[in-house]
Amino acid sequence: MILPDNETKVDLLNNEAIAKTIIALLRERPESPVTIGVHGDWGAGKSSVLEMVEAQLEKDEKVLCLKFNGWRFQGFEDAKIALIDGIVDGLLEQRPALRKATGALKEVAKSIDLLKVAKKAGGLAWTAFTGIPTPDQVAGIVSTLQSWLSDPAALATKENIDGAIEGVKSVMTPRESKSVPREVEAFREAFDKLLVEAEVDQLIVLIDDLDRCLPDVAIETLEAIRLLVFTSRTAFVVAADEAMVEYAVRKHFPDLPETTGPRDYARNYLEKLIQVPFRIPALGETETRIYVALLLAGAELGEDDASFGQLIEVARERLKRPWESTALDSDTVKKALGDKAEKTHNALMLSDQIGPILASGAKGNPRQIKRFLNTLLLREKTAAARGFGADIKLPVLAKLMLLERFTPRLFDQIASVAAVHPKGHCQDLASLEAFASADQAPPAPIPAADAKTSKTADAGKAVKEDSAALQEWKATEAMCSWARVQPAIGSLDLRPYLFVTRDKKDFFGPISTLGHLSAVADKLFGPRLVVLGYLEELKQLKPAEADKVFEAIRSRIVGADTFDLAPEGIAGLKVLVQAQPLLQARLVDFLEALPKSRCGAWVVSGWQGVITEGSCITRFEVLLDSWSKAPSSQELRAAAQAVAKQPKGKN
């Protein structure tokens, strides 16, 4: 069961409301030209909105709706010519009688020929013809090109200018030559006549995937739109991420005036072209849960199933007022699906479990949600194919994948511990889940009579301090939010789940595929004088191998959870980083994560020749300063203050 990641006419997001609004606006005054923008991040559903617009306009014979995808034309020919040619070809295809017409069609064809000639002189010739982004007035395309010859800063070569002039002369006699504004107006009049002859009340052009194009292609397409945007009975609906279009403008016009600022200019460029902007909103928590449930239910039942259509209608009612509604529940689904409701049980459960954090992690983006679900289902099927499908529970896998997708560094920490635990557990994770759940619940009141007794008992109780990793997790709100997601997994055997997620990273390296690297890691837990002898051998490691050895040593040090004296493996870690300087940033990460309250003096010195890269030295000096002010460890504070007084380079 794989969820297709392409545009669809089946509306699971209630975006049909946007499509209907766009159509109403287009048809309100069909004789007036208009350009509408459908904006949103990649995967927000822009293409699906265009599909809905096109599907609803197909029923109106007086409306000709054409779709253009600039990304598909990228690299084949000039995008602006391709768009205009595509519009004319679409007219001829859907109105074959136009081929017998002589006047308007010939005039439009002649103008297109002029556009093709203008391209020979580069972007400025086209800019002069279409009027984008300026100039306001240009005497004429031929005289403009000739004037560039005397400009030492001209962007066109003499050969290009001569070629363009000859090309213009080949399609226009001197008697026919007009100024650029008149040429533009002549093209628009001829195109308007063509629409009359085609008996079209309104031509609507849907532009999709503009934000996927290279900057030059995106600008060329926008310039072609600008040429037609004031032609009566012509409308454009442009689907694009505004940020990507603004980036294209800045890349295409790198020498914008500093007084305006590139971002302001880029935004103005887009706003002058797009008269009416629509932005597709990100999904909230309730909407995400409904969307996930519909996706999975549709995959089980089939999108053409009549009962699934009824479920969509129920969901749309709730999506109309999501701030007041709840997600789909079992009773609602049973009423809509009847006997088929049982098939969607897992879909509802999974949407309830992962909907809240997926809404935040995926930022309400439908494509990211689909990709997450596809990866989840594919991994479940892979486990079944390999013979351990019974060990995989979707809610557990989904919870781990949420962390893997949105907080990968913390996922690596949990995975590294669970992979080497004899039962696949991560005890710190179990503690975090208990902490996060308790943090949500109000504390139980203590009776006044027992308050003194309770405090005395607590004072005498020896409480083991949290490990360095657990302290970090508790201080990270995203980690606590994730830990609250059900089910709790800290006391489960996570090894089957880590094995099925190893398409990105192998956490069982020392046990299985690392081979000789496991022995290398073991060597580095010896005395300093011994591990120094492995320096040359460590230099021969590939970066990926060195990274795995570092992680193996770091995990064992953190797992030992003893930092008052230099732990076993620190000497080996230093020698490894000396041999592999690219690991310096990871070493500083490790030092920053150590608990200040339980670190001895060993941590402040001995890094000369190990930490040598400028940014890492700066980070270590900041860390040294924080150690020198550590209130809970007098030994660490005194040692750090002593080192800080020494000349730089003596640590």
UniProtKB/TrEMBL annotation:
SUPFAM superfamilies membership: P-loop containing nucleoside triphosphate hydrolases (SSF52540)
InterPro entries given in the database record: KAP_P-loop, NTPase_KAP_P-loop, P-loop_NTPase, QatA
Domain KAP NTPase, chain residue ranges per copy: 16-381
Record protein name field: NTPase KAP
Species lineage: Bacteria, Pseudomonadati, Pseudomonadota, Betaproteobacteria, Burkholderiales
